[in-house]
Amino acid sequence: MEDMELLIILIESKDRGASKMLLTSELLEEVVRLDNSIQATNITLKHGTMFSFKNLFTRRGSINFLFDAFKMGYDMQNLNEQLNFTLDSAIQLDSPFATIYDHRFLTLQHFFGADTYPRDNVTRVSQIKAVQSIGLWYMLQAPLPDRAGRDILHDIELKVFEMSQQNFSSYFDFYMYADEVANHEMMVGSLKTTNLLVVGAKDAAPVDRLERVVSDVGPSILITSVTNTLAFSVGILSPAYTMMSFCLCTTIAVALDLILEFAVFAPTLVIIVPKLKIKKEIPIEKSWWFKYATFLLSKFGRGLFTLTIVALSVWAYFGIANMNPNFEPEKTFPFDSYLQESLRPIKTLYKEYGPLSIIINKAPDVKNQTDLSTFIQMVESIEALPETYPSNYTQLWLRDYLKYFEKHSNDSLSYQLVPQFLEDRLMKDKNVVLYHEDVNGIVHIDSFVLLVICHGERNWHSRAFFVDKLRSMVDSHPEYKASVFDYDATIFDLIITAKPEMIKAVVVTLVCMVIVCFVIIPSPKHTGIATLSVLSISYSLIGALGWWGQDMDPVTMTNVLMAIGFSVDFSAHICYHYFKQERIDTRLGLKVEHNELVYRLTSVLLHVGRPTFEAASSTMICMLPLFTVKMYVIGSFAKTVICVGLLGVMHGLFLVPSLLTLTYKGVDDKKRLKETRSTDSDRPLISNQALL
């Protein structure tokens, strides 16, 4: 099933499905013309090789044979009516089932929202009067094994998509959906985003010496980079391919960034940054940060800190409660994409007809009544679920075969009549049943497909967990080696695993941060505060996104994974520098009283305050143009960065400093502390330049 794709064509009335289409021979002929036009779609490569739509067919290819059977029966009955002949009683065209010469099949696969005539004694060509929509289905596969094959598949699907935007027929409009078209529309939004991101970059004020840069910010950068690298490395083990790819790319990006920061960017600053003119120092008491530190340690500042913690927690809780665990595919496309129109009728389709394949790789032993009964009971338990139709909708060839064998053979039950059965039922070339005969002529079933039809008001979230539920049911019968297959299973796996992966990422990030922090900052207090800060930012971020209209979907969860990495920056820098300044004071034997603590905090904020604010604000400014891209994924990312920037500044410059200074008590010599700070080499120079 590698590179296999399902292409869906959905046909509606010209008024976007507001009225139903009368089922007439003219309408059916137009559908056939559309089918022929789609299959005639082709492209020519640069070297002259031509590939047509039919070249992309899998072994099943066009799976519209039931529509073809219905059309054949309709034409026969219509001809009888035009010639004033009696309608053939062996042909009954109805919904949801039709019968043509003892062959009963499900018309619900192609005709949706059908209105039928009254059940009276009037004979009609078809009992179906009108339909909401008509569906055509195609199984496609890249014609070449390399990337060129995917490009061919992409180009042909895109031509069909362009055809759907033209006025193909006066009877209807049609919409299409396929993976390559979806990927193309997602890339449209990505290209717009890339162009907008050239407006700015994350920056901070340069320092005088490279040595000072490395000693000041090196440890905190190391904490954030190593923490994120380790955390996302664990995500590489995720069973979901999409999540694994995301974590792998992020791990490589963060690791390379750490190397480039010290090996390229920092040395380059020494070359390109002009020598700063040394200006006269100003007293630390006159700096804005001194006034701010005084406010933080005041009673009003302490009260505001407590109130903020409580309010933020309650606010985030209700924001999370507002989030719906849902995902819709249109979130990945631009809002003005024509593909949005295609998804509208497809939602209606899945409410009435949602096929789900179960592949049986080891057929039950029909000679063993117990084994056969167990298999039938497994199927019946699936059919009894509220999301599925009853047994008469299920496409299970084995049930019909048991009746066929009983009618055509007096021998004990076996699979010997399977070839004849498939031939009589016109199923031999449909690859529903795969079998082989051994040297003795005994028929063995290799595998077969069981098709269950689902229905009801189901969003993608409920569909995903229903598939997961079905997997558990078939896994309880390992003797049949059954597997559940859905064409949207990749998205389903992402929906199912996103939440546990996010929780795991938060836990792993916190554990990694604790370990790395404790190696560089061997202090349980500072490490614990940094960890609590990351946890608080992550929790508040999810609540903020909930208030901003985001759902609890894989898009939001993936953004939160990235945001966790961002949040480490705000915590690590302030905690490291505070630990460093505290260690200096301890080495000098200083015990700081309440008023003197202002000087310690001011010194720390002079190191990290302005860079933290500049980094957050410049990043948020870069995100503002992204709000012009009308695409949920891009908007969600921009919202996440804005929220984590605001929350990061709040934590890094308000909550964490307040928390770091909460436990300090004692009396000390103010003059000694100030003199020590003014002569200590670790203390930054306070100049006009630093205060600008």
From TrEMBL:
It comes from the Eukaryota. GO terms for cellular component: cytoplasmic vesicle membrane; plasma membrane. Residues 174-271 form the SSD domain. The chain crosses the membrane at residues 252-273, 294-318, 502-521, 528-548, 560-579, 644-664. Gene3D superfamilies: Multidrug efflux transporter AcrB transmembrane domain. InterPro entries: Patched_domain-protein (IPR051697), PTHD_SSD (IPR003392), SSD (IPR000731). This is SSD domain-containing protein.
